[in-house]
Design a protein that fits this description.
The protein is α/β, with parallel strands linked by helices and 151 residues long. The chain has a single domain, classed as Cytidine Deaminase, domain 2 (3-Layer(aba) Sandwich). A hairpin with a 2-residue loop joins strand 6 and strand 7. The structure holds zinc ion.
C-alpha cells in the first residue's frame, strides 16, 4: 500500500465543515471535497437524502452536477473525497460508512460533534479496511477559486 501524505485543508475550509455539521443536527451533514490528490481546494455541501439520524447519502443528482461543473474549471479539479458528520458517537467510520465506501482513493472526512469541541478526522477506506490520515491545516497552494463558497 502506498503511503499517503497528510490531507491538506485550509483552516477556513475545516471551519466550514464544522459549521455545516452543526447546522444539520440532529441529522448528519454531508458534502464533497474538491481538489487534487491530497490537497483540498474547497468543500461543497450537498443534500443528505438518507433517512434517519445515523446515515448519510449524498444526493446523486448533486454529485453528477458537481462532476459536470468541475470539468469546466481551469485548472481542472476533481472530487477527492467526501465529508459527513457524526452528531453523536465516535469520530470514526461506522460499519455502514465502511460498507458503503465505494471509492478506494477517496478521502473520508468525519466531523464528530459528540464532545464539547468538534473533532475533524480523515480516513481512507479500502476493501473494508480503515486507515486514518493526518490533516495538515494549512494553505494548500491554491488561492481562492472563483465560484466557490470558500467554505
Ligand atoms: Zn458515518
Amino acid at each position: 500500500m502506498t503511503q499517503r501524505a497528510a490531507v491538506r485543508i485550509r483552516p477556513e475550509t475545516i471551519r466550514g465543515l464544522v459549521a455545516h455539521a452543526r447546522r444539520a443536527r440532529p441529522r448528519e451533514a454531508c458534502g464533497f471535497l474538491v481538489g487534487r490528490g491530497a490537497r483540498v481546494a474547497f468543500s461543497v455541501p450537498v443534500r443528505n437524502i438518507a433517512r434517519g439520524l445515523t446515515r448519510y447519502r449524498a444526493d446523486p443528482a448533486e454529485h453528477l452536477a458537481l462532476r459536470r461543473a468541475l470539468r469546466e474549471l481551469v485548472p481542472a479539479l476533481e472530487i477527492v473525497g467526501v465529508y459527513h458528520s457524526h452528531p453523536r458517537g465516535r469520530t470514526w467510520p461506522s460499519e455502514t460508512d465502511i460498507a458503503e465506501a465505494l471509492y478506494p482513493d477517496w478521502i473520508h472526512v468525519i466531523v464528530g460533534l459528540a464532545g464539547r469541541r468538534a473533532v475533524v478526522r480523515a480516513f481512507v477506506m479500502t476493501r473494508g479496511r480503515v486507515r486514518r490520515l493526518a490533516i495538515a491545516r494549512v494553505s494548500n497552494g491554491w488561492s481562492r477559486i472563483p465560484g466557490s463558497s470558500g467554505a
